[in-house]
Amino acid sequence: MANEMQNKSLSISVCMATYNGAVFIEEQLRSILAQLPNDAEVLIADDGSADTTLEKVNAFHDSRIKIIEPVSTSTPLGPIYNLERALAKAKGRYIFLADQDDVWLEGKVARVLSVLEQSSATARKQGVLVLHDAYLLVPAEEKCSEFCRAGRLSDIRPFAVGAFRNWFKNGYTGCCMAFERTLLDRTLPFPKNLPMHDQWLGLVAERFMNVVYLDEPLVEYRQHKKNATHIAGGTTSLVQKFKWRLNLMRALLSR
């Protein structure tokens, strides 16, 4: 797989935000690196991990991995604005987002790249974003270290195209997204007070780019108690949700 990709001379940036992810990051990085050509880069922005996350990353001794200067443990940025640091450093033509605790299924990179290239050739707008489905990976039993598949992400968070729909109810999930770097010109720097980076990227893509949805699970999306976001929702108040949507609308109209 990797040799086939090298012949295409594609430039890929994988952007990952890490924070105390030592438990799963080795498996995730192995699944990513096995699919990347030699000219790709994996940009890791660490938010001041207090565990062995960075030690495990460095142990790969892979020149494609680039660690952005870690944030001080006393002033973490949070997952949104920590990921922004990686996106700002990305040099690739195509940007893939990755969580620290998932697993990329074999063939993900080749499949997404083929869609990006084909869609770019026929796109009416400037640039393309690809979103795909994922398998949910949950603990086999409570307090168990073994994980198993439990349906699809689309069973819980179905995707529907449309800026208004995704402004009101987000259907974008970062770990399932890849896009042409033209999206970064529209989205960086991130506006303040975003609810989550994937919704912002998706909304801007809806407005200015072509969005392609693949009804194919290409990632095992791991769910556990330490996830930065939880797809089943949280305890956010209606007032806060209204403020987030208002901020998103203002930011979107200003780009």
In brief, what are we looking at here?
With 255 residues, the chain is of the alpha/beta class. The chain has helices spanning 2-6, 25-33, 53-58, 79-89, 108-122, 163-168, 182-187, 197-208, 238-254, and strands at residues 12-18, 41-46, 65-68, 94-98, 103-104, 128-139, 147-152, 177-180, 210-222. Strands 1, 2, 3, 4, 5, 6, 7, 8 and 9 form a 9-stranded mixed β-sheet that branches.
Determine Rg (CA atoms, Å): 17 Å
Ends apart, CA distance between termini: 38 Å
- How much strand content do the residues show? 15-25%
What is the mean predicted local confidence, pLDDT?
89
Number of helices: 9
Instruction: Tally the beta strands.
Output: 9
**Which structural class do you get from the secondary structure elements?**
alpha/beta
Q: Which H/E pattern describes the elements?
A: HEHEHEHEEHEEHEHHEH
Biggest sheet features: 9 strands, mixed
Q: Low-confidence segments, ≥5 residues, pLDDT <50?
A: 1-9
Helicity level: 25-40%
* Shape, per Cα inertia axes: globular
